[in-house]
Amino acid sequence: MKRKFAIIVNPTAGKGRTFKKLPLLREITAHSDAVFDYYITQSPHHGTWIADAVHTQYDAVVAFGGDGTANEVVNGLAGSNTPFGIIPQGSGNDFARSIRVKRDLQKAVDILLRFEYKSMDLGTIDDRIFLNGVGIGFDGFVNYRSQKLKYLKGSFSYLYSIFSSLALWKAIPVDFEVDNHYYRNVSAYLIAIGNGWSCGGGMILTPKANIHDGIFDICHIRDIPVWKILLNFNRLKTGTIDAVEEVTIQRGKQINIRSERPLPIHFDGELYTMDNNEVKISVVPQAANVIGGWES
Known about the structure:
By secondary structure, the protein is of the alpha+beta class. The strands form 2 sheets. Strands 5, 6, 7, 8, 9, 10, 11, 12, 13 and 14 form a 10-stranded antiparallel sheet that branches. Strands 2-1-3-4 form a 4-stranded parallel sheet, with helices on both faces. It has helices spanning 17-30, 46-54, 67-77, 94-98, 105-114, 138-146, 154-165, 226-231, 235-238; strands at 4-9, 35-40, 60-65, 84-88, 117-125, 128-130, 133-137, 172-178, 181-188, 190-194, 216-221, 247-252, 254-267, 270-291. The protein is built from 9 helices and 14 strands. The chain has 2 domains: 4-115, Rossmann fold, CATH 3.40.50.10330; 130-286, Tumour Suppressor Smad4.
């Protein structure tokens, strides 16, 4: 019997790039030895509703888009054993890097057809599920600014947003709790909670993060001068940012952060809020099945 895949398409992902490539994806899947049905989202969170409604009819549900589309699909699969996959065509595609799926349509479809899936951890941020990671402070502020850009795409939009935000964002004091260890009134330029290792379109703040290990990696950058960020910017690409004095990487399963000032927050590349003063983040081990390009 042929495998059946539901493909959930976000036509706005990648600033419209996804929808332009849909005819080519349909052509590729039409020549495969499997059944592919397509569902087009009409509004935010529609992908969650579709995944929840149809997943029992398919061997897997697949996001065709970026990290935000994948997040919607997984939220719709919560509590089920139905595997999910991704054909990455978003702006950041950070989660796809963690499961070794590149932005090549044919190669991504080939990975789905091999149907090799593993259990992975998920996270919760308040009452929402996330796949890849959470960014608080500068990271959230950059995400907010990148979503306002209409003409730049992919990593270029993140890079532009990063450099244009350097003159605007300042570290803020927070109370920071990790697994009942308390850090009172500490400076936070950025706090990144990584389930996966990539963020911001290929930046590496949590280089040892692993979606299968049941724990988050947490990058905390204290107050740091702009010149030092620029001097060490390449470390964000090489995964060596923890060599900088103001950077600490630790691990934890439950993180609570509070501040007197509003906290810009994103998760899975989507803006969560710009004005919460408190956030609670927890890991949910082995909570989903994901199809990836695993090494043999």
